[in-house]
Write a structure and sequence with these properties.
about 150 residues; 5-stranded parallel sheet; 4 helices; about 25% strand
Length: about 150
């Protein structure tokens, strides 16, 4: 039996490519933004930066420890320093992974900035989780921190 050739799916203009940059730290997010810009520079694609604030249970979910407006402005300044216009979205939640899986459209392209550490970090775990759920993930390594 011959393998069936893959057919290309025609994307309508309404289905514009969106590259999502997941905020980790300002330096790592800037590195992921640079990679996202390089990826979309010849495409008509948008870049959005998502920050997820985990609010611990004793606190009210509607009143996170860091105001959402402050976090959003901080991300805008990171994007501005990278010379990029992006959409910024900040979410407060109880479970980071559940929220991330819920807000990402199917088959999203996600860039995650990280650094090499001698200990495990959350970014490789998030990358595996997103890949298992059908997303395309780009892990961008910044400078080594040894």
């Amino acid at each position: 039996m011959k393998p069936q050739p893959k057919t290309a799916r025609i994307v309508s203009p309404a289905e514009q490519l969106i590259v999502t940059v997941l905020h980790t730290t300002p330096e790592e997010t800037a590195g992921a933004l640079e990679a996202a810009v390089a990826l979309v520079e010849s495409l008509t694609a948008k870049i959005r930066v998502i920050a997820i604030q985990v609010v611990p249970f004793p606190l009210d979910l509607m009143k996170p420890p860091v105001p959402l407006a402050f976090a959003e402005e901080k991300l805008r300044s990171v994007a501005a320093s990278a010379g990029v216009h992006v959409e910024v979205e900040v979410y407060s939640c109880r479970d980071r992974e559940e929220t991330l899986l819920r807000i990402l459209p199917p088959h999203s392209v996600v860039a995650i900035g990280t650094r090499r550490h001698w200990f495990r970090t959350k970014e490789p775990h998030l990358a595996r989780l997103l890949r298992r759920n059908g997303h395309e993930v780009i892990v961008v390594n910044s400078k080594d921190t040894f």
